[in-house]
Amino acid sequence: MQWETVIGLEVHVQLATQSKIFSGASTNYGAEPNTQACAIDLAMPGMLPVLNEGAVRMAVKFGLAVNADIAHRSVFDRKNYFYADLPKGYQISQMYYPIVGRGEVSINLPDNSTRPVGIHHAHMEEDAGKSLHEDFHGQTGIDLNRAGTPLLEIVSEPDMRSAEQAAAYLRKIHSIVTYLGISDGDMSQGSMRCDCNVSVRPVGQEEFGTRTEIKNVNSFRFVEKAINTEAERQIELIEDGGTVEQETRLYDADRNETRSMRTKEFANDYRYFPDPDLLPVEIDDDYINDVRGELPELPDEKQARFTRDYGLSEADAAPLVQNQAQADYFETVAKASGDPRQAANWIMGELARLMNQNDITIDQCPVSAESLATLMGRIQDGTISTKIAKQVFEALWNGEGTTDEIIENQGLKQVSDSGEIESLVDQVLSENPEMVEDYLGEEVAKKQKKKFNALVGQVMKASQGKANPAQVNDILQSKLSKN
């Protein structure tokens, strides 16, 4: 039997306000445990919440960015459950009347196609504290610094059909919230977390299967691995005659397996009811239009501009706009070098390779946009070849000096003297008579081209890669045509 995976994601985005959603306590990351939890966060008697307008503004900004309906009236509810890191015994959230309604994003897939993914809604809520297990043998420590931090929970429709699509959707949400400046999106620090709802069904079946929820997955790579692992588990379970239970599971990256945490709760288990301490949030069209005026150029708009203004294909532009810093880096290189396509090739080629190899982002890249543009300029003016440029780029990455210093100090300047290149060509032809004979005796154009390129390679090797490739081609072709 063929199976289809059905996936929906709940993405929790920590909003970049300076204070918490219902108190004036700081949201700065990295403080000593329990030093940024005030009386409101600790649920002391008589303490009343006061809504942070900045969180409302950020939620509306996100809704507008995904073309969602913005609720003129939204309501905060109490979600009741008891856990050590939840001082009040309930979480303030939005169940029935969220601030952001239905919207949609378009995701880019590896085959250069796009796919729409619906957003069911997005609601504001407060975060809980953090349980600490590592430093407490046989006990659990509680840090309440995070309690009350504003979150926007973005709930997708179950529109994704593969782990690859889910990861692409998560990247798109990350791109949007960071472009908007409403979150830093740092998944390693918990600024963005993801719950994956996964079910399987036979291909062609309309009815959804029973879903499980994989809680708190914290990287794009782990989202893919967790979903694939859980889908395989469910398929194997069903094919062996078992049934999938609706439950919450945890992904163990070390063992690449999901484990049951608890039976999945239903909404009525939380006994939701409107929070009596908070008035409904009412906003008008003027407020929404004011927020709309603050929207920056978003990833899809930037991608369209890059294809229009810089002559890039959509496939080339898509990865460049995944984050604002990378898009800015590209634009700086493209304008300074005057060659947008080569700028894109360098950024998505050598630069991306070294960033992935060193597990860093463009913000941490040791080669500035200006340095890369200068390097490209040295290729354009014939100072170095493209092959040598890669060597210079590695040296720039390692901090060995400026582009011109590296070229000068390492003697990498391209040989463009026709007399010197002609001498090298003559040397190669005299040392490789069999290769010359094979080339001259070949009648198949494709094979002849291959043998010509082999001779070019010998000349480049003799020059230690410094000979001007175009001149080598011209002189070698002229010499061979006389034979």
From TrEMBL:
Residues 462-483 are annotated as: Disordered. InterPro entries: Asn/Gln-tRNA_amidoTrfase_suB/E, Asn/Gln-tRNA_Trfase_suB/E_cat, Asn/Gln_amidotransferase, Asn/Gln_tRNA_amidoTrase-B-like, GatB, GatB_C_1, GatB_Yqey_C_2, Gln-tRNA_amidoTrfase_suB_CS. Coiled coil: none annotated. GO terms for biological process: glutaminyl-tRNAGln biosynthesis via transamidation; translation. Signal peptide: none annotated. SUPFAM superfamilies: GatB/YqeY motif, Glutamine synthetase/guanido kinase. Residues 470-483 have a biased composition (Polar residues). It catalyses: L-glutamyl-tRNA(Gln) + L-glutamine + ATP + H2O = L-glutaminyl-tRNA(Gln) + L-glutamate + ADP + phosphate + H(+); L-aspartyl-tRNA(Asn) + L-glutamine + ATP + H2O = L-asparaginyl-tRNA(Asn) + L-glutamate + ADP + phosphate + 2 H(+). The keyword Cell membrane does not apply. It is an enzyme of class 6 (ligase). Its EC number is 6.3.5.-. Residues 328-480 form the Asn/Gln amidotransferase domain. Keywords: ATP-binding, Ligase, Nucleotide-binding, Protein biosynthesis, Transferase. One of its GO terms (molecular function) is transferase activity. HAMAP family: GatB. Heterotrimer of A, B and C subunits. Belongs to the GatB/GatE family. GatB subfamily. Allows the formation of correctly charged Asn-tRNA(Asn) or Gln-tRNA(Gln) through the transamidation of misacylated Asp-tRNA(Asn) or Glu-tRNA(Gln) in organisms which lack either or both of asparaginyl-tRNA or glutaminyl-tRNA synthetases. The reaction takes place in the presence of glutamine and ATP through an activated phospho-Asp-tRNA(Asn) or phospho-Glu-tRNA(Gln). This is Aspartyl/glutamyl-tRNA(Asn/Gln) amidotransferase subunit B.
